[in-house]
Amino acid sequence: MSPPDFRTKQGRADHVARRLAELYPETPVPLDHRDAYTLLIAVLLSAQCTDKRVNEVTPRLWAEADNPVAMARVPVERIREIIRPCGLSPQKSKAISGLSHLLLERHGGAVPRTFEELEALPGVGHKTASVVMAQAFGVPAFPVDTHIHRLAQRWKLTDGRSVEQTERDLKRLFPREEWNRLHLRIIFYGREHCTAHGCDGTVCELCRTLFPARRRGVVTRK
């Protein structure tokens, strides 16, 4: 097998996928949850909040209510009090209450299994819907948050200035059957090795391998 051509996006993508699979053969979901509903709420809470903090807060929330029927009975003020450490608690508490009511009214209390229906729920954007579709229902998706967006740009896998464009570019570069595992692997690697401040594109293993000339101050081809 010939070595990948790191001068091309596909060559870099192939190496990233292969190396991350070696580093992270298992891809556990970082957010603690019991089912599709609790995953949906946990992902909603993770907006501008760390997974660690969400996992610290959700046990108290689940003790209060861990299903749409029970959550719909909890006053918004009580939800807000519990989730306050996650930040944005006024908006998130209203969204949690609102989507719980809508799940009962429109979906018989079940979390819907389509992007369109999920994104119609309060507080649920495309990224949140993608996580639920991928991790709760096993539907191929490539949730792109700011961390994946940053790494995809650093590794020159995308020229997109938005997460939407990055998602489209990554879906073209990687096999559909790998999307669900790969987006988690990129997150794991970014947190452990290629952080926003810990690596400037010349420090971690992947950056050094993909762009050896960066360390010499040479501009590499895209």
Report a brief summary of the structure.
With 222 residues, this protein is mainly α. The chain has twelve helices and no strands. It is 57% helix and 0% strand.
Principal-axis shape: elongated
CATH topology of the largest domain: Endonuclease III, domain 1
**Oligomeric state of the chains in view:** single chain
CATH superfamily of the largest domain: Hypothetical protein, domain 2
Question: How many beta-strand runs?
Answer: 0
Order of helices and strands: HHHHHHHHHHHH
- Low-pLDDT parts are 218-222
Average of per-residue pLDDT values: 94
Number of helices: 12
Structure, explained:
With 222 residues, the protein is mainly α. The chain folds into two domains: 9-27 and 143-216, Helix-hairpin-Helix base-excision DNA repair enzymes (C-terminal) (Endonuclease Iii, domain 2, Orthogonal Bundle); 36-135, Orthogonal Bundle (Endonuclease III, domain 1), CATH 1.10.340. 57% of the residues lie in helices and 0% in strands. It contains twelve helices and no strands. The chain has helices spanning 9-23, 36-45, 51-64, 68-72, 76-83, 89-107, 115-119, 126-135, 146-154, 163-173, 179-192, 205-210. The radius of gyration is 19 Å and the shape is elongated. Residues 218-222 have low confidence and may be disordered.
